[in-house]
Amino acid sequence: MFSSLALHLTSRSTVLAIHKINAVFLNNMTEIFSYTACRQLSQLLTSIIFFHVSEYILAITFHGRSSVTLSSLLISKNYLFAMAFSLLEYIVEIIFFPGLKDHWRVSNIGLVMIIIGEIIRKMAIITAGRAFTHLIRIYHVDDHPLITHGIYSVVRHPSYCGFFIWSVGTQVMLCNPISTLGFIVVVWNFFARRIPYEEFFLRQFFGPEYEEYARRVPSGVPFVK
Ligand SMILES: C[S@@+](CC[C@H](N)C(=O)[O-])C[C@H]1O[C@@H](n2cnc3c(N)ncnc32)[C@H](O)[C@@H]1O
């Protein structure tokens, strides 16, 4: 009799545990499919698709289909890792701290950053035209003039400035505190090393003309000379 009572109690507690797990699961699913998550994740997806497809179309427009590779889509392993990490952060936080994602003023500032960053970057690509290559040129070619007009008269590296704002904006829009800091550090470091490397060759190509341009116009990436 005792054993059947024990069995009954065990199966009852098992059923209760399953109900509890189901409730937690359903609650988590409700958070994941909430209005907040649907809106923020669809904004992220739209921004990413628009950014990469337009990069690809502009690269084809200026350089022709044959010289455009996957790198023109700017999808690297590090980039995929960073985006995957930010998605993981988003999912964990929306399950355990859903209130964190409801800061709409912050999220909308992120959205504005995405739009401004995108506009600056695309203005840079269109202004530089064929001079804009995704891989840094290390040999001078005849049809590569120094671009100093338009947005290049305001900052020397508008496409990097635009990407910096765009990428950090994606994380601000998602209200992801860890990835926002992570993106600021990683993207800034990347450009802080890339800009001197790129300018080493630009100084070789254009000599005093580039020196004078660099003295006059700021880089466009904070704290990078
Ligand atoms: C990915 S693009 C980035 C251009 C620029 N750093 C920017 O942020 O807009 C890199 C290529 O642009 C070329 N480039 C950079 N600044 C330039 C300028 N002011 N005029 C002409 N070519 C430039 C470099 O030689 C390099 O091959």
TrEMBL record:
Pfam families: ICMT (PF04140). Its main location: endoplasmic reticulum. Keywords: Endoplasmic reticulum, Membrane, Methyltransferase, S-adenosyl-L-methionine, Transferase, Transmembrane, Transmembrane helix. Its cofactor is Zn(2+). One of its GO terms (molecular function) is protein C-terminal S-isoprenylcysteine carboxyl O-methyltransferase activity. One of its GO terms (biological process) is methylation. One of its GO terms (cellular component) is endoplasmic reticulum membrane. The keyword Flavoprotein does not apply. It catalyses: [protein]-C-terminal S-[(2E,6E)-farnesyl]-L-cysteine + S-adenosyl-L-methionine = [protein]-C-terminal S-[(2E,6E)-farnesyl]-L-cysteine methyl ester + S-adenosyl-L-homocysteine. This is Protein-S-isoprenylcysteine O-methyltransferase.
